[in-house]
Amino acid sequence: MRIVFIGPPGAGKGTQCKRLVELLxxxxxxxxxxxxxxxxxxxxxxxxxxxxxxxGELAPDHLVMRIVAQRLAHPDCExxxxxxxxxxxxxxxxxxxxxxxxxxxxxxxxxxLQVAQDELIKRxxxxxxxxxxxxxxxETIRSRLRVFKTQTAPLLDYYKKRRLLITIDxxxxxxxxxxxxxxxxxxxx
Length: 189
Ligand code: AMP
Description:
This protein is of the alpha/beta class. It has a single domain (2-188), classed as 3-Layer(aba) Sandwich (Rossmann fold), CATH 3.40.50. It is built from nine helices and five strands; from the N terminus they run βαβαααβαβαααβα. It has helices spanning 13-24, 31-39, 44-54, 61-72, 90-102, 117-131, 138-152, 154-161, 174-188, and strands spanning 2-6, 28-30, 81-84, 109-114, 165-169. It is globular and about 40 Å long. The termini are close together. Bound molecules: adenosine monophosphate.
């Protein structure tokens, strides 16, 4: 199964993705992690990527697609994979569609994890305190939420029109959220 997992920063996407890949036995393709890995190297590309990430802005679409395509070429992605944090723009969704068309694959399902805005801010500030992630300060949190609203949220409509979208209520407990995800996924497989 090939699944896209969409959720604003702070919605608990990372935790739920980890549980879902364990259940399905497919790899998790987190573009956030891939980009942080690129950023940690001592190259000109790393410094360019760092400028985007540290400002809470999106990395360029074609660069992200190139990194994802390289990862998709690994044999462990053959049975399927879970996209965590990708696509994040309509252009990325189109690039992914084109990639799948070229490689005779398809997307099976898009999960949309919904959490109220004030709850997101509360969770992100708490995470900033606990993990001291470089892109989790007040200013970048606001910027990442704004980016989600303007650039990523339009994807919901894009996938709804393709009848791939399932909305999950992210205001429940972690276990309840996962139960709803499990039901959505098994209903499709
Ligand atoms: P995440 O770990 O998914 O919250 O991503 C952390 C940061 O990495 C984001 O705020 C963006 O700057 C960047 N990023 C992650 N995924 C993407 C993507 N699909 N497109 C562009 N930028 C991304």
